[in-house]
Amino acid sequence: MAPTTATVAEEAKVASIKTLTDAGAELNSVPSEYTYVKDPNDQADASDPEHSIPTIDFAHLTSSSPDLRSKAIEKLGKACEEWGFFQVINHGVPESLMKSMIEACHKFFQLPEEEKKEFQSRKLLEPIKCGTSFNVAIDKVRLWRDYLKVIAHPEFHSLHKPAEYSDVSLEFSKQTRQVATELLSGISESLGLEAEYIAKAMNWDRGLQILAANYYPACPQPDLAIGIPPHTDHGLVTLLIQNDMGGLEVQHNGKWVLVDCAPGAFVVNIGDQMQILTNDKYKSVWHRAVVNNRATRISIAVPHGPALETAALPIPELLGGEAPKYIGMSYEAFMELQASPAAYMMPCLDHLRVKADN
What we know:
This protein is α+β, with helices and mostly antiparallel strands. It has one domain: Jelly Rolls (Sandwich), CATH 2.60.120.330. It has helices at 8-12, 17-21, 58-61, 66-82, 95-109, 113-116, 165-190, 197-201, 272-277, 316-319, 331-338; strands spanning 55-57, 85-89, 128-132, 146-153, 209-216, 228-231, 237-242, 248-252, 255-258, 266-270, 287-289, 297-304. The strands form two sheets. It has an eight-stranded mixed sheet. The protein has a four-stranded antiparallel sheet with strand order 6-11-8-9, with no helix packed on it. A hairpin with a 2-residue loop joins strand 8 (248-252) and strand 9. It is globular. Residues 1-12 have low confidence and may be disordered. Pfam families: 2OG-FeII_Oxy, DIOX_N. Belongs to the iron/ascorbate-dependent oxidoreductase family. Residues 206-306 form the Fe2OG dioxygenase domain. Keywords: Dioxygenase, Iron, Metal-binding, Oxidoreductase, Vitamin C.
């Protein structure tokens, strides 16, 4: 994350969540530094079928049939406007590749701590970095997760261990980027724009793609800990996969919804840059990762953003006489803001929102 006064050596003293939970029977409760106070009335509702994220059929979105594609684009726009989250089926990425990617990341987290130390870094855009919690230099409560972040575009980077990670991540990053590109085109068209409008405006060919793996081991008291607290994503669109253990919750109409997606589907959400572009028409929605006491959850989020030097601004064609609600900031600066104490667990968009004249 962004540089702070803490040194890497000091941060390294903070045990990974894997090290903590490997204590086994000795860990019967959540340590005080990991205790996260939740609102007892803020529980997810998984029973109401109306509280299920929309489903987008990728085969329809890319169909040669104008009717099928038109309906899919309309459904995509509605999902972006009403939910900010949806699942994508029939996307063409082999489920075997998705499982191999999860397994490769799991093997990385299983490496001895000494072998992972070379990847510990405080630099925001370090090509390969791993760590624990969110930012141990500023965390008020430590999170029940370890992470691995690898930049896959515009330049592909890879781990040399575990051995299979490189080939699997290369293919996975290529195929997820293809899906994200088609989704971006569909989103552009859902807004009444040319298919390539957003891609061109955001310099998509040089856009940032990160493979961000999260490791959430079983927790003895899941109600007293959090994997990742409520937050929004900084990019344009994020694609996510997970193993058989769910834990993603999305805020919808003031309630938390536990996401239950189809096997092999991507969960996709709109990021902050897209909310800026659409002047709040498509919103970057609050979501969080909860933990369980049964088994380890592995998730891999793949955020896709603009080129680092590119600043998102409300698209003029979408304003319809309305004033722009946001000022510009380069994507790199926006990411630095999100990682700083000034925006710790706060909506970063508030820092860019145009203040109303008194």
